[in-house]
Amino acid sequence: MKYTILGIETSCDETAAAIYTTEQGVLSNELFSQVDLHALYGGVVPEIASRSHMEKIHPIVESALLKAHTSLDDVDAVAVTSKPGLPGSLLVGLSFGKALAWASGKKLIGINHLEGHVFSACIEHAIPFPFACLTASGGHTALYRVKNFGDYELLGQTLDDAAGEAFDKIAKLMNLPYPGGPIIEKLAQEAKFQDVFSYPRPMKHSLNFSFSGLKTAVLYDMVKRGAYDLKAKCFLKDDDLEFKQKVASSLLVCVADIFENKLLMVFKEYPTTEAVVFVGGVACNNYLRERLKNFATKHGKQFFVPSRQYCTDNGAMIAFVGHYKAQQNKYSPWTLDLFE
Ligand code: KG4
Ligand code: ZN
Q1: Closest ligand 1 atom, CA of 180?
Q2: Which of 14, 79, 84, 137 would you label with 237, given CA atoms 20 to 30 Å apart?
């Protein structure tokens, strides 16, 4: 059967909508990023996020239909993120998606945002199963074993902060703007990705992660080097670009080592793993992409990352998952609620 799916995503700070069809794949992928609204506060402010979603959801969905040269009449089902995420943000997309589907007589498909990320690289690549998927964003960091479309198992996840969150928080410690990830990458490049400060690699023998521990280790290392005043909560090396470059570089190398170590554990435990897939906002990072690609290749695994527009939150990955769920006849009831 052929389907046209409208995907809607509002779980955090991006209002996104996309059209995916069986024959032509992604026809449109529209997005309003709230990053500038939250930059002032150094992180996502939930109330501001949900208010902005309310303003943007209608124009973004309209724009997705327009850019795809399609109309609601051609859509077979509305796929919308129902979990996990900020409740107020999710509620806007879910209510809009449900109302739209109900009013226009379309089917409804509730999507797990993380399933969207896990399969985001499949939009552009035919990836062999089973693959190991490392999802790293500002809200989540997890490892999955993926056996087929919709068939996946969680192997490990962060017990506290996400990897992107660690970049954001460490950048904030050094008075750098939000989001921290891209700036950390730029600074690290200047220090030639050298492991100057050798931060600890926590949880070496587990498939879980702890990035809050890493953040604290970086903070105490800064205190030890006279770069941070704990009592005054004040960074003391604002003018020392070289120091910031060294922190960023050591941090990136450390995170790459942590990721490689987890993947190695997965390869040992699941030798049939065919490929490594790296997704989420942190997968925009060129250094991490390169490190993980070389690592996977060295171990005889194929390696895939989505293009950047599908790494960060987007509607296309929600429409894509909605598409295979439609093929599997897995629709949601009208009672679909938040977090279901
Ligand atoms: O997937 P995403 O857009 O939103 C969430 O679901 O969180 O990911 C945003 C996260 C932020 O923490 C940001 O710092 C990080 O991805 N990020 C990066 C890079 N670009 C974005 N981290 C490292 N290097 C980058 N180039
Ligand atoms: Zn996400």
Answers
A1: 14
A2: 137
Q: What strand order describes the sheet that includes 275-279? A: 151-157, 141-148, 131-136, 275-279, 302-304
Q: Is 34 close to ligand 1, i.e. is its CB under 6 Å away?
A: no
Cα–ligand 2 centroid distance for 258 (angstroms): 20
Structure tokens at 340: 């279901």
* pLDDT tens-digit readout, 37-81: 998 888 899 999 999 999 999 999 999 999 999 999 999 999 999
Model-wide pTM > 0.85 = yes
Hey, what are 3's tokens?
Answer: 């389907």
Banded pLDDT at 144 (limits 50, 70, 90): very high
Q: What residues contact 40, with CB distance under 8 A and at least 6 apart? A: none
pLDDT, tens digit (0-9, with 9 covering 90-100), for 285-329: 999 999 999 999 999 999 999 999 999 999 999 999 999 999 999
Token couple for 173: 């410690």
329 vs 114: CA distance, rounded Å: 20
Q: How far is CA 313 from the centre of its chain?
A: 6
Beta-bridged to residue 135, according to DSSP, are: 142, 279
The percentage of the chain sitting over the pLDDT mark of 90, rounded to a whole number, equals 97
Of 325, 315, 323, whose CA–CA distance to 97 is shortest? 315
Residue 264: C-alpha distances to residues 202, 256, 276 (Å): 15, 12, 11
Distance CA 77, CA 212 (A): 40
| Mutation choice for ligand 1 from 312, 314, 317, 318, CB with most ligand atoms inside 8 A | 312
- In angstroms, the CA 169 to CA 78 distance is 36
The mean of the pLDDT values for the chain is 97
Helix (H, G, I), strand (E, B) or coil at 234: strand
Residue range 250-266, pLDDT digits in tens: 999 999 999 999 999 99
